[in-house]
Amino acid sequence: MRNDTLNSGRSFPLRIFSAGGGPAFVLLLLLFWIATPAKSSAGDVGSLQGLLTVATNGVGVYSTSYTLSDYRIDGSGYFVVRDPVSDVLSVTRFGELSTDPDGFLVTPWDKRVQGYDNPPQPSIGDLQIPGNPPDSTDWPWPYSSYNIQTNGSITVLFPDGSSSVCGQILLQKFQNPSALIAQGWQDYGWEPGAGPLPPAPPGVSGTGPLVIGSLEQLTPSLQVSRYLGPPKSFTQGVLVSTATPTDIGIEGGGFFLLRRTNDSALFATRAGAFYTDGSGYLLHYSGFRVQGYTDASLSSIGDVQIDAISAPSSANPDLYVQFFGIGLDGVITENLNDGSTEVRGQILLADCANPDLASRTNFDLYPLANDPGLWASLAAPLAGNLGWLVEETVELSQFDADLLTVRSNLNFFTQGSVAFTGVPSNLALMGSGFFTVRDPAADSLFATRWGGFQLDAQGYLVTTNGLRVQGFTNAVATQIGDIIIDAAGAPNPSLKMTNYSIGMDGRIFVLLSDGSDFMRGQILPQNYRNLQALKPMGNGLYANVEQAAPIFTNGAAPALVLGQIVPGAVEQPPPPWPTLQLPPASGFRLFVTNLTSGAVESSVDLIHWNTIGQINGSPDLNIGEFFDTPQTPQTFYRVVLPSDWDY
Fold first, then answer.
1. Closest CA to 346 of 277, 288, 395, 299
2. What residues are paired with 471 via a beta bridge?
3. Would you tell me which of 78, 370, 528, 535 could form a disulfide with 548, CB atoms 3.0–4.6 Å apart?
4. Of 50, 57, 639, nearest to 399 (Cα)?
């Protein structure tokens, strides 16, 4: 058992979690976000920063949940929790507690609650609910229930009617809670300046008793102050969740290594904003290729590749990639349509002896040739002080205007919400893929995910502007062209069409006047190897489909490789981002820009007004970044003003 002193004066590195839990927890994640105080820095770009200051004095928003596993602290104490992966302690006021598969009492982000864990000779450590009575030799003997008293004492009830006190939650109090360091949603680290006091049971030394069936969340408020650009000295930035799998943050001291293909020059970067090209190479926004192990045996270093979603696996062409993941150690794993997985490679990191001495250029690039003595050889994440990788996050402090400009012109396709309309010609894609539609006048093809289709006067399945949906046009699935829904091809030509239906696999069945039906054709969804080659044309249409490299060229995709078609429904696009109007005294207006959809707005006041997207697991904020507090879901913003702005 651990016996750490909870009020030790050690500092805590920033760490971001991936949001987990059920729908109720996800909803809560979208409500409140926490931020750090401002820090001064020097830079080259005149900018503004919006900051959220946290009410860390224990005054937050209370909500009654009527859930027995929810606990609010009626005082100024904090729960102390430990990350079992990094062994880092932090504190929180948010008491939505549960047990993990090993019986440990945990927060929604799987941090273990601390307290007296071994009565009657208690030590301070992870609190665990035992699986059997203390005097029993039988195993397993699951407990019937447990309850936590207002003083934090945990009592376990067993099926035989016996009970046992298995531990007690301890709370941490601080003399200066405003000095706590926000390092995650409702999660804080501390340094000596926060004035930590000895831990105590709830209700002792002003910590406050626990209130069952209630929760508290600390809420932010918006402030605006001057910002002078990215810091010139290297510091660990906050990792912000983006839900984009090729966004990769580094939690630690390492750097990604990139190769310029025309001369093989090497560059380092902390800005882990990547995308894949038509050949599957993982590219930085500068166009340079990420370096690492390129094979399943993790033995050959070169340009990292990832197979396209829905494409045949490079390891086994008879199987298809459904999705991929990048682990903390940089290992790239592809999940295939038969349920198996394949290792595709591993992203490696480089260490720098003194990043403050390294030459930095635009796109957050550090040319290794300029400072060769500072850089060490590539190594796997988690080695030394390289740190680990966090998928679907970006370190925003490393983003410059060039990176943001590139991002604003990239394609980001995410699953939207599906709304049922009851119209049989309306179709929604649940999962990866696109519908293909053809302009009959220009004979040109487009990709779209918007399935608000209808039948025209000739029976063609068309978009609202008359583009025809593509697929098999006959029952034997031999002809690909414009989908038409009528009685042509029926076994009895004299019968009339009375209705039709479209299945989840895209097959179209026509109901005939005698009550029988027959297959008339099949809609064929498509996916592309190079999504960035698709050119947005408005109204949800994308041109340049041939250059985007269609994956399926000879008919239908294998089962369960692409998303399913939901008939009688449409996929709703994300709602427009709201305009946030600051008080007139601030002297400027801010316009929301959603980089996920590629929109960039500006006014006479602003060059551009950048967002990374919805925040699904927010940490504290970096300089030049803020959230709109009244909006749900919360949105991240970054503002860049003209360099000659008159402060």
1. 299
2. 481, 523
3. 528
4. 639
Instruction: Report whether pLDDT(132) > 90.
Output: no
Handedness of CA 54, 23, 18, 231 (dihedral sign): negative
Strand (E) or helix (H) holding 405: helix 401-408
Q: 414-430 pLDDT, tens per residue?
A: 787 888 999 999 999 99
- Chain segment 181-217, per-residue pLDDT in tens: 767 667 888 888 889 999 999 999 999 999 888 888 7
Yes or no: say if 474 and 483 are a contact pair by the CB < 8 Å rule: no
Average pLDDT over the chain, rounded to whole? 76
Segments making up each domain of the chain, as ranges:
23-30+56-218, 39-55+219-244+394-414+575-647, 249-391, 417-572
Looking at the chain, how many residues does it have?
Answer: 647
Placement of tokens 């045996």 in the chain: 297
* Residue that has been written with the tokens 């980001």 in this structure: 412
Asked if the model's pLDDT at residue 79 lies above 90, the reply is: yes
Residue 93: C-alpha distances to residues 62, 173, 185, 215, 306 (Å): 11, 11, 11, 8, 41
Q: Give pLDDT, residue 397.
A: 67
pLDDT of residue 55: 31
CA dihedral 123, 128, 129, 130 (to 10 degrees): -70
Backbone angles phi, psi at 148, to 5 degrees: -115, 120
Query: Are 492 and 500 spatial neighbours (Cβ–Cβ below 8 Å)?
Result: no
Cα–Cα distance for residue pair 105/153, rounded to 1 Å: 13
Helix (H, G, I), strand (E, B) or coil at 34: coil
pLDDT of 151-185, one tens digit each? 999 988 877 778 888 899 999 999 988 788 767 66
Side-chain half-sphere exposure of 373, counting CA atoms within 13 A: 1
pTM for the model: 0.60
Tokens 């399913």 belong to which residue?
564
**Residues 115, 165: Cα–Cα separation, whole Å:** 13
Q: How far, in Å, CA of 299 to CA of 278, rounded? A: 24
DSSP summary character for residue 25? H
* Rounded Cα distance, 96 and 90, in Å: 15
Rounded distance between C-alpha atoms, residue 83 and residue 106, angstroms: 10
DSSP alpha helices (H): ranges in 543-641? none
Give the DSSP H or E segment for 403: helix 401-408
171-176-179-183 Cα dihedral, nearest 10 degrees: 10
